[in-house]
Write a structure and sequence with these properties.
This protein has helices spanning 3-27, 29-47, 64-75, 81-93, 111-123, 131-142, 151-159, 191-206, 242-258, 265-280, 292-302, 310-320, 338-353, 358-369, 402-412, 420-436, 473-485, 493-505, 520-533, 541-552, 565-568, 580-592, 599-611, 638-656, and strands at residues 59-60, 323-325, 330-332, 624-627, 631-635, 670-671, 674-675. By secondary structure, the chain is mainly α. The protein folds into two domains: 3-57 and 336-675, Glycosyltransferase; 60-222 and 243-332, Glycosyltransferase. It has a three-stranded antiparallel sheet, with no helix packed on it. The protein has a two-stranded antiparallel ribbon with strand order 2-3. Strands 6-7 form a two-stranded antiparallel sheet. Helix 3 (64-75) packs across helix 5 (111-123), helix 5 (111-123) packs antiparallel against helix 6 (131-142) and helix 19 packs parallel to helix 22 (580-592). The chain starts with a helix and ends with a strand.
Length: 676
Amino acid sequence: MSQSEFKAEFQDHEAAAKSLRGHLHTHTHKSIHLATSLQSAVDSLLRIQHQEGFWVGELEADSSLEADAILLDFYLGSPNPGRVGKLAQCIRDEQGADGGWSLYPGGAPNINATVKAYFALRLAGIPEDNPNLKKARQVALQLGGVEATNSFTRICLCFLDQYDWKDVPALPPELLLLPNFAYINIYEVSSWSRAMLVPLSIIYSFQPQRPSPPGVTLRHLFLPGSARRNNRLLPAAPLYSWKTLIHAADRTLSVLEQKKWTPLRRQALRRAEQWLLDHLKGSDGLGAIYPAMMNSIIALDCLGYDREGSLFRRELAEYWKLAIEERDAVRMQPCFSPVWDTSLAMFATAHTLGPIHPSLRRGADWLISKQISYSGDWSVKSPDVQPGGWCFEFANDPYPDVDDAAMVLLALSRVRTADASRQRASIRSGTDWVLGMQNDDGGWASFDKNNNKTLLTQVPYADHNAMLDLSCPDITGRVLEMLGALGYGADFLPALRAIQYLRQQQESDGCWYGRWGVNYIYGTCFALRGLAAIGLDMREGFCLRAAEWIRSLQNADGGWGESCDSYDNPDLRGLGPSTSAQTAWALLGLFATGDFASESVRRGIRYLLTMQKDGTWEDSYFTGTGFPKVFYLKYHLYSLYFPILALSEYVNCEAAGQISYRGLPEWQLGLNGKKN
């Protein structure tokens, strides 16, 4: 397209957008407020786009990240006093009134977070007779003490001689010698567990212990009468069961480790080291995410890599890039989310800005440049699938994921770049990759195909509740929405299988579980959007039941909310203080069923308009999910682009009378369920 043609087309789209805004401004006072609110929010989002074309918001998690950062500093033997003090201040700021630390605002105190926070503050020089630490000790003991922590917390305590290596589950690097065709091998566990466990297997082989500073001890956090070095947890399982057998094997491996009977250790360490080095290539640290990055740094140290060498310094620098330093505190992010944030920001604003808006074009060009052409870990179980996905972070070539790939393709389907052939090739290869990752049950998971051997949930290290990467309704719904945007219909075989999967996964009250967002509101929203986009008749009973479930849980203020508590207690699903992101999800779910005019929708829109301030919204609660029951997130841009998407679709419905889930005509790969 020539510059003059682009200018003319851009002016046409600007004129159409002005006409739409004019229609709304002359319609009613409500529409004036709505159009102004939407435009103000879009402007707020455009202002924070980076020059290269991407968006990236802060990712906030619990105090364990700051605690581990302090621990790593002390493990390496040269803690930065200023940084440690600021990290400690962040931890102190997050202590609950009861004395403990929780996994999310408003949550109950958590034993792992509390023990780590207490230890980090002691390392930072806070005396044990500090009133807040006294309260923390009481909470920790009420929760079961150090003995009640999970395997990963206890390993962290081993690093600084607060726990004995012989009392943690065995994790020998010989596990990497198991062939990929074996029933149990490292590619049968989830990608995030794999990225944690491989470096930990190296660490376990060396079992490093550094001394804590004089006087720093966790002796007060062990239950009275328990032996510090004899508290390996016994499985609560029948005598003849897989869990009992696995724990017996763990004990045997531990004994062999203590007796140094490890004839394959040298070969196993070479295999683990090579795996680690291979996976550091093309990524901003191992998995580009905490805690794999921290584990890899300690593993490199155990292997003898020079701390002043380029590899070690690079990995340490990537880790500290996750820090956000302010005047009095340092916060740690678990990772960066630019691909996710960029695709969602583009998708949310495309209706308002038009397909050739310069900001969207810059975003699309940046996303296309980030497409991964490398066959990562996913290819072990999908060897016939060609690469073409996207990762969540800036660089993480071994680990593209389906959710990000589908979201990128949704964003690209609504934008027209200057290089149509490049964009078309990107969309086609990305779609082929996503289709190739469909699981046998008809759904889609995150990083791997058919990663579903439930036996692995019985191993000792499974206490972080994330050993498997199973199909989930939210990702499956997003893939269906992507396919619908690209012109596929409900008679396309992968779509048929996915629809059947969603039917089977629906809860009895009409909702769907949310794996990557909190929780049932999230899962229900994206399941419904996928079903609508692929062309299913949304008047079917199971869809109407889902819509009624959403309406039944609306709060008195007109919004919707759901606490992370619903992962521990499903009876709490759909219940919680209203947030802008969850209100937007509820509205988007209702829109998918054709409900644009109910009193419930009007109240939800009114909530968003009322709660907006200076062009944006502020949510204090966590609405993102890392590992259910274990790790939660606050995506700082969720409270901006999801309300924008909801308001935009509502505006377009007022103007056009319906929502179109189809992308631009030139990107329609599917026609009547077939590929062109």
